[in-house]
């Protein structure tokens, strides 16, 4: 999950059309008519294309490249699993900041209608004294909805940074809650809920991350073996290490699949080097020499 910002002018015309606004009025009522919610609007090609562009053809949650995707409602439109009396956020069915591109695994197999909050759920739209909906209050980062304090993270939250919430166990390729967070910390609760609700630690994703780690480690181990057999010298290995850092930097760009994981690897590159060196070189004096060389 990487930070993304939607600019106000990026709203697809389909969602701001008079036809869509009229349809929303019919949904909101009174009476409430959730049967009027239609994928004709939120699932329109123009909406999907814009989401695809903003999220670089990746799932908003797990960052897997998409081969077709669901338009996900961050706040579920017809019901909430954690609150069986909740009617769902029917009034947000066409709200641009409530729509995300999501792979089938994250959306249908994992999230569904889950939407836990730290406070209480909003059950009706924010309206003025004339019972007219206050458009600005329906936005993700505005006070009205933010008062819920959702436990599920959203890539478009103001000042969102995945490094504030997550770490990875680089031995198992598991995503975990950031190590220095207390269980009573709101950030801990949000990270933990997001991992569980979206299934960010499902086998497929762990395997993809593990394969990245293995490929990087094997590449470095190969060059360590060349060093051990005298085919290259220590300065050559340092140059190779810099090339490895350049590879991490390149794959860390936001348009790449699993960019956040690559960014994490780049930040923790010395751990990977330590792991390779310790596994390959038994002499602790030479281990320390290598590590010091790479830290320069």
Automatic annotation (TrEMBL):
Know the name of this protein? Answer: TIGR02646 family protein
Looking up Gene3D superfamilies in the UniProt record yields: 1.10.30.50
Domain of life, per UniProt, equals Bacteria
């Amino acid at each position: 999950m990487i930070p993304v910002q939607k600019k106000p002018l990026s709203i697809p015309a389909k969602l701001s059309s008079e036809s869509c606004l009229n349809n929303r009025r019919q949904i909101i009522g009174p009476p409430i008519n959730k049967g009027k919610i239609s994928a004709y609007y939120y699932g329109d090609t123009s909406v999907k294309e814009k989401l695809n562009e903003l999220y670089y053809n990746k799932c908003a949650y797990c960052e897997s490249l998409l081969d077709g995707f669901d338009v996900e409602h961050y706040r579920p439109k017809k019901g909430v699993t954690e609150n069986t009396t909740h009617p769902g956020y029917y009034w947000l069915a066409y709200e641009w900041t409530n729509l995300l591109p999501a792979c089938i695994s994250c959306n249908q197999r994992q999230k569904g209608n889950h939407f836990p909050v730290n406070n209480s759920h909003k059950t009706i739209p924010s309206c003025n004294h004339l019972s007219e909906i206050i458009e600005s209050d329906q936005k993700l980062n505005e006070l009205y909805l933010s008062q819920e304090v959702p436990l599920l993270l959203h890539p478009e939250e103001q000042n969102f940074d995945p490094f504030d919430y997550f770490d990875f166990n680089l031995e198992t390729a598991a995503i975990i809650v950031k190590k220095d967070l207390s269980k009573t910390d709101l950030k801990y609760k949000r990270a933990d809920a997001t991992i569980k609700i979206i299934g960010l630690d499902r086998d497929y994703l762990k395997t993809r991350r593990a394969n990245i780690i293995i490929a990087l480690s094997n590449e470095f181990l190969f060059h360590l073996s060349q060093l051990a057999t005298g085919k290259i010298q220590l300065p050559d290995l340092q140059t190779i290490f810099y090339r490895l850092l350049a590879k991490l930097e390149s794959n860390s760009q936001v348009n790449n699949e699993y960019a956040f994981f690559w960014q994490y690897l780049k930040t923790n590159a010395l751990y990977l080097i330590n792991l390779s060196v310790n596994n390959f070189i038994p002499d602790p004096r030479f281990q320390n020499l290598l590590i010091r060389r790479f830290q320069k």
